């Protein structure tokens, strides 16, 4: 298969480019259906005439339906999308990227989805779907699942299929609340995931960006201690990764502190810790929720993060713990590989 693909790339590269373009268009329709042609063109950043031609092709092939509400993907179209995934994965060389990342970041497992979330937010949906399927496959009875908040984690929860196959599952927040957007806070996502898995859940009713070291009594409240103990026993940790400066601003840090983090080499943030590119913790926020030392003994640590702009952040966080599981996108993967290769070249000089 790989041999034939290499031949096709050399002899008829335009056919593979056309396939990639049509796959992207059909995927965009699927994640936004029903959708009109003008909105589809805006999402993809291409001309309406191009969209009109491709839509006409999809309609003739019975891959989409068109009505007054917009375009939707037919059952046959959904089947085609699923079958194309593996081919597009090979077409883009994503398997080779996964092998490189697995080896050089010492990962337990890695999944790279096509696209770059910095250029197309719909890639988040594909990452969320891949993460949901991955997590569902590893679930077992009596597991404790800990979640952080964030947009990427919400996409995973949104794409998790409903099931009642597992007994005594418990879902807990790995951190407290952050910001005003309740929809992406850990407590909200915990409740939604628990509903989909027919699981029990507990909430951590504390804001993350408050220094609870000065109000020790609150952390020793029985209900909070109970949640903390469950977090410490988690079998699965699902978390997002942020850029250090962006996360510091979201937590209300002053510019002086942000400058200090930059001077210390902080590039990424996860579960309240700020990491440099080598995986060292340069700053640790002592608040309620999972502790950095707790993460090392969790069997399945699953991070979901994408976009070329987050490459350094992903590297720093993954290097802190060996044998992580990373679900990312093509844009981040390419940039991570470039960064690691440059590091290797500098060492050899």
Automatic annotation (TrEMBL):
The keyword Glycoprotein does not apply. Residues 90-338 form the Sugar-binding domain. It comes from the Bacteria. Residues 19-88 form the CggR N-terminal DNA binding domain. It holds the Pfam family CggR_N. Keywords: DNA-binding, Transcription, Transcription regulation. Belongs to the SorC transcriptional regulatory family. This is Sugar-binding transcriptional regulator. It comes from Clostridium ganghwense. The lineage of its organism: Bacteria, Bacillati, Bacillota, Clostridia, Eubacteriales.
């Amino acid at each position: 298969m790989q041999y034939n693909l290499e031949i096709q790339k050399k002899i008829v590269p335009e056919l593979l480019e056309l396939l990639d373009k049509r796959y992207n268009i059909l995927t965009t329709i699927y994640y936004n259906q029903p959708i009109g042609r003008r909105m589809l063109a805006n999402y993809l950043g291409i001309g309406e005439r191009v969209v009109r031609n491709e839509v006409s092709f999809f309609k003739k092939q019975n891959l989409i339906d068109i009505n007054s509400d917009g375009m939707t993907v037919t059952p046959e179209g959904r089947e085609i999308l699923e079958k194309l995934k593996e081919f597009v994965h090979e077409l883009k060389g994503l398997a080779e990227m996964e092998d490189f990342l697995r080896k050089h970041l010492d990962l337990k497992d890695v999944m790279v989805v096509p696209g770059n979330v910095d250029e197309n937010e719909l890639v988040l949906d594909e990452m969320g779907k891949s993460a949901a399927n991955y997590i569902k496959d590893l679930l077992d009875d009596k597991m404790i699942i800990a979640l952080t908040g964030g947009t990427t984690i919400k996409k995973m929860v949104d794409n998790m299929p409903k099931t009642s196959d597992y007994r005594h599952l418990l879902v807990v927040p790995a951190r407290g609340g952050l910001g005003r957007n309740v929809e992406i806070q850990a407590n909200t996502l915990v409740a939604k995931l628990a509903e989909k898995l027919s699981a029990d859940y507990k909430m951590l009713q504390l804001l993350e960006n408050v220094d609870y070291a000065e109000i020790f009594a609150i952390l020793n409240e029985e209900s909070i201690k109970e949640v903390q103990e469950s977090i410490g026993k988690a079998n699965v940790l699902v978390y997002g990764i942020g850029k250090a400066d962006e996360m510091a601003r979201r937590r209300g840090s002053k510019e002086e502190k942000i400058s200090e983090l930059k001077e210390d080499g902080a590039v990424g943030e996860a579960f309240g810790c700020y990491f440099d590119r080598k995986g060292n913790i340069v700053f640790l926020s002592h608040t309620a929720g999972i502790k950095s030392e707790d993460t090392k003994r969790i069997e399945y640590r699953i991070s979901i993060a994408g976009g070329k702009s987050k490459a350094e952040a992903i590297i720093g966080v993954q290097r802190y713990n060996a044998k992580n599981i990373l679900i990312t996108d093509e844009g981040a993967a390419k940039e991570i590989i470039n960064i690691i290769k440059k590091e290797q070249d500098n060492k050899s000089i």
